[in-house]
Amino acid sequence: MFAAFNLQQMISAFIVLFAVIDIIGSIPIIINLKEKGKDVNALKATLISFALLIGFFYAGDMMLKLFHVDIESFAVAGAFVIFLMSLEMILDVEIFKNQGPIKEATLVPLVFPLLAGAGAFTTLLSLRAEYASVNIIIALVLNMLWVYFVVSMTGRVERFLGKGGIYIIRKFFGIILLAISVRLFMANITLLVEALHK
Q1: Where do the TM regions start and end (predicted)?
Q2: pLDDT, tens digit, 9 for 90 and up, residues 145-165
Q3: Structural domain contains residue 38
Q4: Which domain holds residue 37?
């Protein structure tokens, strides 16, 4: 398994997941939840998110086969989702609305859809089309450690970065996500076109 380890792939996967999960951009939401008196458990949120993401990473492939969808097609669909998420971050618009019935703050909205949402699920499977599994899993574990640190230190992180700092980081990673979605789309649409010509 570790024979396939590649530092560059791991760093790339880490940056993609870091931008998609965007825990820094979620700090104002977490603070708002705490101000409303809703309990946010950092450890519980991190562990549940990690379990959901790892579960989908391994079972997602099986689910795709069940619906006769190949990984390249899913990666192209994922590129569209990542593209829309990047537009949310760059343009300050809300495209993905959370209108679910669950009111507990640690599970909704923190675990789903902020940490383990459609974007993160799609990104994980899209990354599988390009990178070795071990590099993606290490990148995911590092991201979850970062998530735990940020959620447990929300107040301090916000004071350190300031509202302006959080805003700039969100815009910066929005542009990175936009570039990633274009690259993901181009790489996988080429593979799909080649498969059609065979």
Answers
A1: 12-33, 45-67, 73-93, 105-125, 131-151, 172-193
A2: 999 999 999 878 878 888 888
A3: yes
A4: 8-195
